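ugh ok fine here u go
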Amino acid sequence: MVTIKDINNVKSLKDVDELVQICRRCILYKTKISDVPGDGNSKASILFIGEAPGEKEDLVGKPFVGRAGKLLDFLFSKIKLKREDVFITNIVKHRPPQNRKPAKEEIKACMLYLKSQIEIINPKLIVLLGSTALEVLFPKKKISKEHGKFIRKENNLYLSLYHPAAAVYNAKAKNILIKDFKKINDYKKYL
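structure:
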């Protein structure tokens, strides 16, 4: 069992999960039902990062299981990718009330967990789902200009895409997301 003192010395995704369970770094723990640190293959080549757990995710304890998750599963099938082959997480690990956008202090509180997840998994590609994920890691970039583009930062390769939740309610965004999602298969050209 890890303790909050171990935050800079995590060795596994299980350690991250345990730290998220005892986290009190922001107020989101007070209203959460479940911890949603992430789910998937710890040796995944592709890591997906969204904004925050929604209502269904909070109930189940896994990311992207609601309507946006169903669309994400559909997109996986289009490029012959399976959910168990990737790792999926969010910027914040507990649901903000009423699915509001996470506050800056909530994002800052969870960044240690996300950085640990990235280091442990060491993916070849990090897919940023939506404006929050993009702007947290690339503060000067906007999803409207960067969607479908590969970005290299330090030793990591990123691809920014519209968030599936936006595509659930917007046909134009859905068409763009479907087109951009197919670019995931091209990531090896950029390595």
